[in-house]
Each structure stands twice: as C-alpha cells, then as structure tokens.
Amino acid sequence: MKLKILKKGFNYSQDGPGNRLVYHLQGCNMSCRWCANPESISSGGSLMIEKEKLLEAVCPYGAIREGGLNRHICSDCHNQPCLHEYKNQGIHLSCFEMSEDEILDEAEASSTLFFDHGGVTFSGGEPTFQYPALKQILKRLKENNIHTAIETNGTHKRLEELFPYIDMLIMDFKHINNELHKEHTGVSNEQIMVNVEKAMSSHPNVLIRTALVNGFNADRKYINEFLSFYKQFNHENTQFELLKFHEYGKEKWEQCGLTYQMESGYIREGLEKEFEEAYRAKGLTIIRT
User: Fold this and answer.
1) H/E segment holding residue 251
2) Which residue, 48, 109, 117, 159, has most beta carbons within 10 Å?
C-alpha cells in the first residue's frame, strides 16, 4: 500500500515525545474554518500556486492567465503538463506518494536520530483518512520496535483498532457542543466523544488537545462542559493541552484556491491560563509542548 504524504520532516516534542520523524498525510474529513493546512483537505491533493512565479507557458489549455489559475479548467485536465512536463516553481501538487517499505526504510535509517524517546508520528490532514495503509505501517513500525504516535481528530469509527500499534495517541477535541462542532468543522462530534471515552479508558498514553478559538469554544461555559465530560472517566493516563488560535496557514488558503473564513479568532490575553487553572482545579494534568 502507498500513502499520500503532504509533507514530512523532523520535529522535537510537539508531535509526541523526543525527536520525531513526522509524516503529515493528505486528506481530511473535516473542513475547519481556521485550518493551518487547508491544502491537506482534498483527498487527491491541492494545486498550490505562487502568483509571482506562475508562468502561462506551463499550461497549454489556458488555465493560467495574469498570475491566476482557472481551476475549472484544471478539474478536467488529466495529464497535468504543468506538473509533469515543465519544471517550474509557480505550481505544484500538495502531496506525493510513499510506499510502506519506503517509510519503514526511512524510519529505520533515521532511528539514531530518535533521541529522548522519539520515533515516528503520523499527522495530517487526518491520518485515519488513509486508514488501511496507516494501520499496516503502524503495525510494521511496532514490529521493528519504533515508537509510534498519531495526531487525529478522533472521528474514525475504527480508531480503537489502532490502539495496540500506537505508543502515544494525540487527539483533537474541538467542541463539546455537537451543533457548533458541525457548523464549524462540517462533521459531528459524536464519534469523537465515543473515541475520547475509549482512549481514556483503555489507552496508556493519551494527549487531548483543544485549540481555543474566539467566537467558537473559548467560553467558560463550554470549558466547564468539557471538564464535566472528562471527569466521568479515568484520567490518570491522559494529559491535556490548550492551544491558542493562530493564523499561520492563512496564506495557504489563497494558494490552493480557497477563501479564508476566519475573523477575530484570537483569544484575549490571559484566557488560556485561566482555562488551564480550571483544568488543574479538576485534577486534570495540563502540559505545554
């Protein structure tokens, strides 16, 4: 099996413990308005452009004009000469493919760099969007004694089947209110809540992250509802992290032909710390990576 890779590289401590080889996989079932990797949403990859480097000559079908890209023409193009016949920096596909063997070989060759309990992490996009191939490569990495982690939105119905092959499970939980979750991400949170309960109940190493977004979930009443939900379950194996909204991916929305939809997402200064104290007051472990 092959996996579609959005990007790969090493990162320290933010994607699991230690120094890690991180594979960001293409494709996501959510459409979050603040997504930092909007080019990852499409399952087949997104055409990314840099206007100042975009050349009309690389498209014989007239899709490129005056620094812009007519994506309607691109949708009917199957041979993609702009990608395969011409070398240019103005347009590229957001992903590439790697086989299981290639990933395993790369991980084994990188093993001397996995210091401080490092290993391999699969992130996204949403890694479970490529579930069959993800499961196979996780199994093979574990068979070769390589520490594994995934960062997931928690929506996959068969997520629990991956638990034996994941040393650290990092889950996003964006909103406790189902209607608001659907409005802002495009999907329900019902399966996420089921998977959070399963993870807290049976996985030995869980990190649950919530990005605080003004006008969405950065409200004390929602935080209290999160806390009431978590307190139902064993949390000795679970850590929590609250993240502040950012706009790091804003430019990429335009590069892949999408409209950035967020306004005033930044939270007020000090709110993150207030919410962290609320978690600690309930006996939950808060960390910052």
Assistant:
1) helix 250-255
2) 159
Q: Where are the alpha helices (DSSP H) in the chain?
A: 71-75, 81-84, 100-109, 131-143, 178-185, 190-202, 220-230, 250-255, 271-281
Q: Which of 29, 64, 93 is the last residue of a domain?
A: 93
Q: Range of 277's domain? A: 2-43+95-286
Q: Give pLDDT, residue 138.
A: 98
CB atoms within 10 A of CB 93: 17
Which two three-digit tokens encode residue 253? 């929305």
Please return the burial class of 191, using the count of CB atoms within 10 Å of its CB with bins 0-12, 13-18 and 19+: middle
Quick: pLDDT tens for 140-185. 999 999 999 999 999 999 999 999 999 999 999 999 999 999 999 9
Kindly state whether residues 264 and 201 are assigned to the same domain: yes
Q: Is the pLDDT of residue 257 over 90?
A: yes
Q: Do 213 and 252 have their domain in common?
A: yes
For 223, the enclosing helix (H) or strand (E) is helix 220-230
**Count of other CB atoms within 10 angstroms of residue 1:** 12
Structure confidence at residue 6 (pLDDT): 97
pTM of the model: 0.95
